[in-house]
Amino acid sequence: MLEILGFEFFRNALIAGVLASIACGIIGTYVVVRRMVSVSGGISHAAFGGIGLGYFFGIDPLLGATGFTVATALGMGALQLRARQQMDTIIGAVWAAGMAVGILFVYLTPGFAPDLFSYLFGNILLVPRGDILLMGVLVAIIVAVVALLYRELQAVTFDPDYATVMNLPVERLSLLLLVLIALTVVMLIRVVGIILVIALLTLPAAISRLYTTRIRSMMVLAVVLGIAFTLTGIGLSYLLDVPSGATIILVSTLAYAGALGAERLRQGD
After folding, report:
1. 202-216 tens-digit pLDDT
2. Residue 11 falls within a domain, yes or no?
3. Torsion over CA: 52, 56, 58, 59 (sign)
4. Residue 268 forms part of a structural domain
5. Residue 263 falls within a domain, yes or no?
6. Pfam family of this protein, just one (predicted)?
7. How many Å apart are CA 197 and CA 87, to the nearest integer?
8. How many structural domains comprise the chain?
9. Given 8, 57, 101, 228, which is the most exposed site by the fewest CB atoms within 10 A?
């Protein structure tokens, strides 16, 4: 097993897994606490529209997904806050429209769209160095923003009404949180694919919430769990010669099921 570390593609996969775990541990905590899992699902599936635009205009599809998901997240937030639309309706529209835009522009792109399935289902073993650099930049942005606005984001996450009373810019902070979710979704696309993003974004944080209620502790534990799940999934996918994205998610799901079972037993005692 250790000899595989001599290959650059495997080292890139490990680095990508750690970077993605840091982002999903931090932002996934906000998603779970504020119950924004469905919102994250809408943003992640809308990202396919950016992938399609990237292919059509001849730019890096991941770069196209970044711009498209950020714009989509801001649009969803603005519709909910200002147009007073129900978020579940917005999610349904964005989810379907994003996928439709992606399908249309992939179809209109001349020739064959390379690596399309890796964006849909993930293949962390094929992450190029350029994407790792982009992931590193996105992680740095996410960590810096959360560090600078930790107390404000915590207030908005737990009690938006209290944050309003404290004269915090709740609307802008809510939009910022949506943008951070969008950036995290882009990072996870290369790891597990658009279809499976929601699970890796939420399961480590959901497990950590079973053992602590403090945001900072939840983030740290979720990051550690995310790294463990990702590295275990990568190793198993290599040994068993199965898709890496699906393996990572199954490892995470089994861990979540085990944590829930252990919690039920503990409460029963």
Report:
1. 999 999 999 998 999
2. yes
3. negative
4. no
5. no
6. ABC-3
7. 20
8. 1
9. 8
pLDDT at 19: 93
Instruction: Give the confidence band of 178 by pLDDT, cuts at 50, 70, 90.
Output: very high
- Written as one letter, the residue type at 108 is L
CB 235 within 8 A of CB 251: no
Nearest-angstrom CA–CA distance, 230 and 137: 20
Backbone angles phi, psi at 139, to 5 degrees: -65, -45
Residue 51 is encoded by which pair of tokens? 């992938």
| Contact status, residue 50 vs residue 69, Cβ threshold 8 Å | yes
Alpha-carbon Rg for the chain in angstroms: 18
What 169-174 contacts at long range (C-beta under 8 Å, 24+ apart), as own/partner pairs, is 171/81, 173/149, 174/77, 174/81
217 CB-near residues (< 8 Å, 6+ apart) = 208
Tokens 């991941």, located at residue = 62
Q: Could you give the 3-state DSSP secondary structure of residue 79? A: helix
- CATH number of the domain where residue 88 is located: 1.10.3470.10
CA separation for the pair 79, 73 (Å, rounded): 10
Output the pTM of the full model.
Answer: 0.90
- Other C-beta atoms lying within 10 Å of the C-beta of residue 115: 15
Of the candidates 160, 263, 146, the residue with the CA atom closest to the CA atom of residue 212: 263
Rounded to 5°, angle at Cα 47 from 42 and 48: 110
Q: Are 124 and 197 in contact (CB under 8 A)?
A: no
